[in-house]
Amino acid sequence: MTETHPETTEVPHAAEASAGGHPFAAAPQEYDAILLASFGGPEGQDDVIPFLRNVTRGRGIPDERLEEVAHHYRHFGGVSPINAHNKQLREVLEKELRSQGIDLPVYWGNRNWGPYLEDAVKEAAANGHTRLLAVATSAYSSYSSCRQYREDFARVLLDTGLAGTVLIDKIGQYFDAAGFVQPFTEGVAEALSEFSAAGFAPEEIRVLFSTHSIPTADAERSGPRDQDFGDGGAYAAQHQAVGAAIMEQLAAESAAQPGTEWQVVYQSRSGPPTQPWLEPDVCDRIAELPAEGVKAVAVVPLGFLSDHMEVLWDLDNEAMEAAEEAGLRAVRTPTPGVHPAFVTTVVDLIKERMQAVPADQRPRLTELGPWYDVCRPGCCENVRLGFRPAAAGLAP
């Protein structure tokens, strides 16, 4: 993807090679720390409602409605696995950086629970680390998976008084980077092999690539506003492209036989019934499969980096129950987590940014990539909130 932008355009809170607004870093640049940015999750039963209040802040949702979601967390003792995953990811990322001769510490901060982004940025600044390159634990383009992180970076810098002292850039969305996709590909291959060994014909097998549903209006605004990605915007297009890349690779390797069908489905809807969200729902789709002659289904958590609550509850619990009720043999494949290929890819993405590798020399698995170092004007608007100040991108 190529795009030009006037030299005079400035990107708030950015390092010099990104401040001009070019889609990709204009020159090599140094950073002195990595900022691992994530969603966060409760660490016990008493944390659950305060955490959900943070997640839904500004929407006026009463606690009794939050309890409808809280029982997912309470089922697991009030503890989300996402924090434990991020601790592990931070550790292996620092180790991989050192193994490649990159002496950068990794600070970790969350949007909705401790350790908060504010604490991570203040800690970095106190240690003299003021040029931060952020890695968000969300691979796709949408408000909640990209722009909201960028807004939080700007908010944190302003609220802490560190704007002008600390710079924060962000690596581009990595949905089609090889090491992110590889664990999904391996999982689908293993599931198909298991189904084949059990005697299922290709036409009796379905692969469902599942990701978090979002409001249709927000999905349509995902990605740059001057590009047409079709229904569902960049968010849906990116998932569709990655699913196709996985199945094409497996077909080329004869791991997926002709006749094996697949599609992208959605999960974890949380909006009011009157508000359109991306569909079809994964459980609804599973219920329809027997009538289509399907006897086995592989559910692939394509939109998720790790086994956090939406995977453990919505897929391992609800989707597997739906498959059992439908009389289907079902497998939920792994997320990338701390798969070595993914960790290596994150370091590769960091090096691409530091070295200002030209876009045409950044290998990706789909025609949509590589995604931008600097988010484009009007990217990933939230319909309800509009555009708020954000780092790592051009103003609308």
Write a concise keyword list for the protein shown above.
396 residues; alpha/beta; Rossmann fold; 2 domains; 4-stranded parallel sheet; 12 helices; 39% helix; globular
Number of helices: 12
Tell me the structural class: alpha/beta
**Which residues sit in consecutive blocks of at least 5 with pLDDT less than 50?**
1-9
Biggest sheet descriptor:
4 strands, parallel
As a percent range, the share of strand residues is 5-15%
From the alpha carbons, calculate the radius of gyration and give it in angstroms. 21 Å
Sketch the topology as an H/E string, one letter per element: HEHHHEHEHEHEHHEHEHEH
By CATH reckoning, the class of the largest domain would read Alpha Beta
Distance N to C terminus:
20 Å
Coarse shape:
globular
CATH architecture of the largest domain: 3-Layer(aba) Sandwich
Largest sheet strand order:
2-1-3-4
Count of discrete domains: 2
Give me the CATH fold name of the largest domain. Rossmann fold
| Approximate helicity band | 25-40%
- What's the total count of β strands? 8
The overall average pLDDT, rounded, is: 95
